[in-house]
Amino acid sequence: MKAVSSSAPPGREIFAPFAMVARALGHPCRLGLLQLLAQGERSVEALAEQAGLGLANASQHLQQLRRAGLVATRRQGNRIFYRLSDRAVVALLSALRRLAERNLSEVARLVERHFKVLDQAEPIGPVELVQRMKKGLVTLIDVRPAEEFAQGHLPGALNLPLAELGRRARLLPRRRAVVAYCRGPYCMLSYEAVARLRRRGFTALRLEDGVPEWRARGLPVERGAPQALAPQRRKGGAAARRLCAANRR
Amino acid sequence: MKAVSSSAPPGREIFAPFAMVARALGHPCRLGLLQLLAQGERSVEALAEQAGLGLANASQHLQQLRRAGLVATRRQGNRIFYRLSDRAVVALLSALRRLAERNLSEVARLVERHFKVLDQAEPIGPVELVQRMKKGLVTLIDVRPAEEFAQGHLPGALNLPLAELGRRARLLPRRRAVVAYCRGPYCMLSYEAVARLRRRGFTALRLEDGVPEWRARGLPVERGAPQALAPQRRKGGAAARRLCAANRR
DNA sequence: CTTGCATTCAAGAAATCTGTTGAATACTAT
DNA sequence: ATAGTATTCAACAGATTTCTTGAATGCAAG
Predict the structure, then answer these.
(1) Which residues, 6+ apart, have CB-to-CB distance to B135 below 8 Å?
(2) Which residues does chain A have within 8 Å of residue B187's beta carbon, measured at their own beta carbons?
(3) What ipTM is given for this predicted complex?
(4) Would an 8 Å CB–CB cutoff place A87 in contact with chain B?
(5) Same domain for A20 and A116?
(6) Average per-residue pLDDT for chain A
(7) Are residues B121 and B84 in the same domain?
(8) Which of B247 and B4 is assigned the larger pLDDT?
C-alpha cells in the first residue's frame, strides 16, 4: 500500500490494528488451526499434522495468529503449546460464520451441497438434543479423537472417534437414534460419521454445534476422563441421565 | 498459495468462504468504508471522498466488500448506493473490535494514548447517558455531518457537525455537561469535539458508542429531520425528555 | 559439554493484493 | 442522438503474502 492516495483523513491508521486481526482470520489454514485450537491446546507439531501443514508453515501461521492476539503460547519442557487467547475468539469466529452463511449464499450453497450428499437431514440443535436425551431417545457420540474428547466433551457423550467407528459401531444400540457431534459446524467428522452409521442402518443425526459452540452458549462441558475404552458400556441410559442432570440447572 | 502442502485434510476448502469474508475486513480502508456505511447508505463518490480514497480505488474496495457479501448495492438513476447488507455486519465489527481491544494491548495502548491526548476522561456508556439525560444534566450533541444525522440519530440529540462547532458552540448551555457522540468508538469526530469544547471551558464528555452500536443494542433511533438549523433551540430540556420517553419503553 | 528434539528464523520463488491511470460502460438530461 | 455524470473495468508497478527449504535457536537428557 502506498501513501494513502491524497489527503489521508485523520483516524485512518486507527483501523490498522483491527484490520490486522481480521487479516489473521483471512486464510483457510489459519481458520483450520483455530478450529483445532478451539478444541483444546496443542503443540505445534500436533497442529501441523492435524491441519495437514508443513511444520515451518504451521509455525508461521501460528505466529501470525499470535501477533494478532488470537492465540497464546505456553512452554512445557521441550515443546510449545498454543491455545486460544480468549473465549471471545470463538465468539468472533461464530459471528464470522453466521455472516458468511447468510451472505455468501452462492458459496454456501456449494458447501451445503457438498455436505448434503453426506447428510440429507437437517442437523438438530442443542435444545432439541437435551429434550431427546432426557427422554432417552438418543445415543450421543463424540467422534473426535480421544485427546480432544478428554479436553472437554458434552455431558453423557460416548467417545467414538471416527477411526474406530468401524470396529465399535456394532456396540451402539439400534433402537435409539444416534446423534453425532465433532469440532464445529464445519468440521466434517460428524458428517462422515452420520453417513457411515446410516449405511449400517442406524438412524443417525448430526448435532448442529461442536464443543466450542456448546461451551460458548454457556452449556456445561465435562472434562477429562478419556472414557473407558470398554466397548461394553451401558449405552445411553446412564449417559443420558448425566446429560440431563447437567442441563437441568 | 500453492497446492496445500501435502495431504490436504478434507474439509479445508470449507474454510475458504469464511476466510474470504475475513479478508474483506482485513484492510484499514475497507474498515473505514464499513464504518461510514454503518451510518447509512452512500454513493460511491461520497464514500470515496469521506474515506479519502481515489474513486476507482474506493470502487474496488467496495466491490471486494460486496463479493464478500458484507455490503449490497442499490441503483438510483445515475448513481449506485452502497449499504451494509445485514445488521449482523455491525455485530461482526463489534466482535472484531472487542477482541482487538482486549488482545492487542500493545497497539491498543498506542491508539489510546494517541486519543487520550485529546480526551483524558473515560467515555460514558449508554446506560449512564440515559440516566443523566433523564435528570437533565447533560446536552447531547451529534457531531456527524447533517446527512448522517438525518439517516438516524439518538433521540433528543442536537446535530452540531464538527465543522460548525466553532460557530455554534456558544449556543450550548454552559451549566450542563455536553456529551458528544459520532460514528463509533473509533471515530475521531467526537474526540475532536470534546477537546474543542473543553478548550472553550465546557464540561465535555464522549459517549462510548456511536449510532451503529446504539442501534445494535436495540436502543431507539430517531430518523429523518435533519433538525432545524435554528441556532436557538430549547437546549436539552425537550430533547432530554424525548430521549427519556424513547428509552422508557 | 554434547546430542536430540521441537520450534523458530531466514531467504527466495510464486502468487496475490493495492493503488494509480486511462478507457469503457450505464444511465440521465438535453 | 449527444453530451455529461457516475461507476466500473483493465492493466501495470510496487508491495505483501505464502510456502518451501535449510539453518539457527532453546531446552532437556545423557
Answers:
(1) none
(2) 11
(3) 0.84
(4) no
(5) no
(6) 83
(7) no
(8) B247
